[in-house]
Specification:
heterodimer; A: mainly alpha; 2 domains; 4 helices; B: about 750 residues; disordered N terminus
Chain lengths: ~90, ~750
């Protein structure tokens, strides 16, 4: 599970560090898969809690404890209830 | 540039406001560097020469060379080369002379960052987001119906239309909304056009939303009518979505990708299971529903879905839909490139010159241009491009990639749908898309009707129709109007050549029906909800309690009104003795294009008010606005005033009323007095809606022209942009970072972690 969340946190590294011994093709494949996983997770919105947490920590300090993950997702859905977004044809 | 009053120009903010933080790296690529990038070098000349050459050859192959067949690959090459040129050249002109973005200015995502609605999003992710919000079943359906006129008119309109009109609208609405803190198109209309124009724009968008929901729902009903397999697998999406909702709420909150993959697998299982269920006698009996029953089912479902909490049904369905959208597009493109079908449909068909085609009636001009709305120019996008996306955009210069580029992508989807439709045998195409009133809904009737059309090279036999239907697991494919079944059949024939052979034909057909239904039902859910909020807001001005969105009676009443609105039109369409889609679809296109007229009218006024240096380039907005206005107003006039009953709603209305008055008991395709009365009622509703839409659009247009002329005379006008704030972050503008952008990215990456801007850290 931890490696899954990893991909949501980090943008795939741009630096082309060549690991000694590992074949370049395999390395490219792994990086490609990581990139796709990163993209899908971001697109679907898995990282929303991390975005919130980052924002909260940077702007509100420790005296206001942030929402827990479960509270956050509830809040987010209730927000959507109040502010619906359109979907096009 | 220096002579304008400062408040009317986009670069009018004083330098002090945008004074960059000297301790941070630059937030924008310096102008000198941009100037250097504009210089032509030999590799660039060769690259763009080659792209132009490929595009030229492809266009020659599809438009000029008249062989027996033309390969589908030429459509792909013509489209992609044209898009690249449009994006690289025309969109850059718009950027440089109309939008004039300034990356030193912070976007709303940065200024109002709240970690939720407003947060700077990676441009590539936002592109996917925006695309998933604008594209749905629309670009899949319109081009299929337009194939009646041959492939060339539709192809030209989709490709040229998107470059000069659709993408221009999306780009500029997105940019101007970004400059205005993400304000909606309705609010912008009120700001720029005054109270009358603004109110007309809001009322028009509400009505247009209703008609769009109704006709999309009609497409689903027609695809599912008398199809046990389709009904079973599409209704399974409801328990699947409920399961996903509960999973996300109680089991593993936030694991959206995970639950979407689970949902997708369940969806595939539902399609396979649908084949088994439909083959059993009890399954065939339970799920064999007529169209009226399905329509009522969708109406009840629409009401429940709009009052249930979002997390239970709408949000998970939306995740599934987004997941499918990206997958389907990749699959469709891959299959067409892999199979490269030969197209034998003529460039211009027998119906291109007349106005009595069996799929939709009306002459090529203007009706082709309203039949294909999504994919070329879609006014509905203005609602997405103002609102959600501007709150997430990281840098101003990215609006070209996301707004213009996102619309090009939708256009490409439309081209692929067109290719899938025209790869079908023409006899089958017309048997599927002629109304039940013409074919009688029987194989014999369809064969007789299609062969009587006098299509060259078409000799339909009953055997072809029954075996094609059997191959995809359907009882019949006669008069399956609405475009979705045609696309599904075309797709299934292409896909089975690529994967799985004839054994999977039924699976691919129902897979296509499933994703079209999924896209449409998501649009129905979300549209009903948005329309309800608009209504709550409007009623709230009179009865304040309605503004409280937590007050359940208010929610129920407004939802019921909205569902009744589109449900009424849906039922009219389903029971229409004249066939439904072919009389109602033009209304959908006209409504959507009228919304585009409204959006472009707002943009025109905004650009004129920006100052004198913009007036030379006003034609970039005026051109698509004039075209869309002429097309939609002409189409509305035909629908209101044409004396040909198949085209004019009122002509048909009067013809049927006279027949009733004369005591006749059957008239035209209506066999009974009730059917005749239904036609009289339907044409009245259609005719009235046409009048209302066109009147509202003309009001908006006039207020816009007045505002524009005034701004022209005064050399500018009031600026409603939010005050400029200096940006404190950087990101590249396009899909790929340029050399200068990479250098800046490295400078930003070298900053210590605590000084990095938010949300680039993950």
């Amino acid at each position: 599970m931890s490696d899954v969340t990893d991909t949501t946190e980090r943008r795939p590294a741009r630096t082309s560090e060549v690991r000694a011994g590992a074949p370049v093709a395999l390395d490219l494949l792994i990086r490609g898969c990581r990139g796709i996983a990163w993209y899908v997770h971001n697109l679907m919105g898995d990282n929303a809690y991390r975005v919130y947490l980052d924002h909260h920590l940077a702007n509100h300090g420790a005296e206001h404890p942030p929402l827990t993950e479960r509270e956050f997702w509830r809040e987010r859905m209730d927000d959507q209830d109040r502010n619906p977004g359109a979907r096009c044809c | 540039m220096t002579s304008q009053p400062p408040r009317t120009t986009n670069d009018g903010h004083s330098v002090a406001e945008l004074e960059p933080d000297p301790t941070l790296p630059p937030t924008a690529v310096p102008e000198a560097e941009l100037e250097r990038e504009r210089k032509w070098t030999w590799p660039k000349i060769l690259l763009w020469g080659a792209i132009a050459l490929v595009g030229g050859i492809a266009w020659t192959m599809i438009a000029i060379v008249r062989g027996e067949t033309v390969n589908a690959m030429w459509f792909v090459f013509a489209a992609v080369a044209s898009y690249l040129i449009g994006y690289r050249f025309y969109a850059k002109v718009i950027e440089r002379y109309i939008a004039r973005p300034d990356d030193r200015r912070a976007t709303p995502a940065e200024v109002k960052a709240d970690g939720k609605d407003f947060h700077a999003t990676d441009r590539r992710v936002l592109f996917g987001h925006h695309f998933a919000a604008i594209a749905g079943a629309g670009p899949l359906v319109g081009p299929v119906l337009a194939a009646q006129m041959g492939y060339l008119p539709g192809t030209i309109w989709i490709i040229v239309g998107v470059i000069l009109a659709g993408a221009v609208q999306d780009y500029l609405v997105l940019f101007f909304s970004t400059r205005r803190g993400g304000r909606s198109i309705g609010q912008m209309a009120r700001d720029e056009l005054g109270r009358i124009g603004g109110t007309a724009a809001i009322v028009a968008s509400l009505l247009i939303m209703l008609i769009i929901i109704a006709i999309l729902a009609l497409v689903v009903v027609n695809a599912l009518g008398e199809s046990p397999w389709g009904v079973f697998s599409v209704s399974m999406t409801i328990p699947i979505a409920l399961f996903m909702g509960i999973y996300l709420r109680y089991l593993r909150p936030g694991r959206i990708t995970e639950v979407s993959i689970i949902g997708f697998v369940l969806l595939l299982a539902a399609i396979v299971a649908g084949g088994w269920v439909a083959a059993t006698p009890w399954g065939a009996e339970i799920f064999h529903l007529d169209r009226t029953t399905i329509a009522w089912g969708i109406i009840v479902y629409g009401f429940i879905a709009a009052v249930l909490p979002v997390w239970l049904l709408l949000a998970p369905r939306d995740y599934l839909s987004t997941f499918m959208k990206i997958g389907v597009i990749v699959m469709l493109a891959g299959a067409i490139v892999l199979v490269r079908p030969e197209i034998s449909v003529p460039a211009f068909s027998e119906f291109a010159g007349g106005e009595l085609g069996p799929v939709f009636s009306g002459s090529l001009f203007p009706f082709l241009f309203v039949t294909i709305a999504c994919g070329a120019l879609s006014g509905f996008h203005a609602l997405i491009a103002s609102g959600t996306t501007p709150k997430l955009i990281e840098k101003e210069r990215q609006t070209r990639f996301i707004g213009y580029g996102g619309m090009l992508m939708e256009s490409f989807v439309a081209i692929m749908a067109l290719v899938a439709a025209i790869s079908l045998d023409r006899g089958i195409y017309f048997a599927m898309n002629s109304s039940g009133a013409a074919t009688g809904g029987t194989v014999e009737g369809a064969v007789a009707f299609v062969n009587s059309l006098g299509l060259t090279g078409v000799n339909l036999t009953p055997d072809v129709l029954t075996s094609t239907a059997a191959a995809v697991g359907e009882e019949s494919i006669v008069s399956r109007t609405g475009g979705a079944p045609t696309l599904a059949l075309g797709l299934s024939q292409i896909m089975q050549q690529a994967f799985g052979g004839a054994a999977l034909a039924g699976f691919w057909y129902h897979f296509a029906i499933m994703f079209e239904a999924l896209f449409i039902l998501t649009a129905v859910d979300a549209g009903t909800r948005v329309a309800r909020f608009m209504l709550q807001d409007s009623i709230g001005n009179v009865i304040p309690r309605f503004k409280d969105t937590a007050w359940r009676p208010g929610v129920w009443i407004t939802t019921a009104i909205m569902v009744a609105g589109w449900g009424y039109i849906l039922i009219l369409g389903v029971t229409d003795p004249l066939g439904g889609i072919n009389t109602f679809f033009p209304l959908f296109g006209i409504a959507n294009q009228l919304l585009a007229v409204i959006a472009l009218a707002v943009v025109l006024a905004i650009v004129a008010k920006r100052g004198r240096s913009y007036h030379r380039w006003l034609w970039i907005v005026a051109l698509p606005l004039a075209f869309a206005a002429v097309v939609t107003i002409t189409a509305s006039m035909y629908k209101i005033f044409s004396p040909v009953p198949q085209v004019g709603y009122w002509a048909n209305h009067v013809a049927f009323r006279n027949a009733l008055d004369a005591g006749e008991t059957s008239f035209g395709t209506a066999p009974t007095v009730e059917a005749m009365e239904a036609v009289v009622r339907n044409t009245f509703v259609q005719g009235t809606l046409s009048i209302v839409f066109v009147t509202l659009a003309i009001i908006v247009l006039i207020t816009s022209v007045v505002a524009t002329v005034k701004a022209w005379r005064n050399g500018g006008g009031e600026n409603h942009e939010d005050p400029a704030v200096a940006s404190r972050r950087f990101a590249p503008a396009g899909l790929f970072a340029t050399k200068a952008e990479k250098a800046l990215e490295r400078q930003w990456a070298a900053l210590p972690a605590e000084r990095q801007p938010e949300s680039t850290r993950h």
